[in-house]
Amino acid sequence: MNELPAVILEQDARFPTGMWTGFFLQYWWPGRHTTDLDLTCGGGQLSGRGSDAVGGYTMQGSYDVATGKCEWIKHYIGRHSVVYRGINNGNGMWGVWEIRQLGGLYTDRGGFHLWPKGQDVSAESDDAEQALLQVMRKEFGSKAFRAARALLVLAGIGGGVALLWNYLLGY
Q: Which of these, 76, 48, 83, 45, lies nearest to 61 by C-alpha position?
């Protein structure tokens, strides 16, 4: 009979097993988007289940108690995946998420902050949000730049569709 190995739960107070809450930020979708998850941390590995405005998800990843660095992949059930990278400085985990789209031609990024439920991180959360928004504004640029980039992406898609159409029709 195969038995699963027992998970030794993390003793470092920055990575407790249990219910966590938080938010993610997306430049194109303003505001904090709340997420709640049940997280298990042990032996440098983390896993969990949760839900947010996008849907239900699972997550698998790792963390390092020496540096506080953490990373994981969030898999929305029946949908896309999101890569998360961040750090836990004792006030929860915060950092940047990333989704690659259109075969890697376009990458969407945003920020996040997660913390154990019941922990008061309101000041730190506000600071994290402002820092993340500042980075996102710098990365995504002005409205004119974003509009030009969107047009280029759409033109590229249109060109690809036209080439495929011509190929299928034998031109």
A: 45
Phi, psi of 65 (to 5 degrees): -70, -25
Q: Across-strand partners of 100?
A: 107
Pick 7 or 109 by higher pLDDT: 109
Quote the CA–CA distance of 84 and 117 in Å, as a whole number: 20
Strand ranges in the chain using DSSP code E only, listed in sequence order: 18-26, 29-42, 45-52, 56-63, 69-76, 81-88, 93-101, 106-116
Residue 79 has which token pair? Answer: 């949908």
Three-state DSSP state, 71: strand
Residue with tokens 């027992």: 6
CA 66/CA 107 separation, integer angstroms: 30
125: left (phi over 0), alpha (psi -120 to 50) or beta: alpha
> Model-level pTM?
0.73
SS3 79: coil
Tell me the C-alpha to C-alpha distance, in Å, between residue 68 and each of 14, 17, 24, 103: 8, 16, 19, 31
Residue 101, pLDDT score: 77
Residue 148 pLDDT grade (very low, low, confident, very high; cuts 50, 70, 90): low
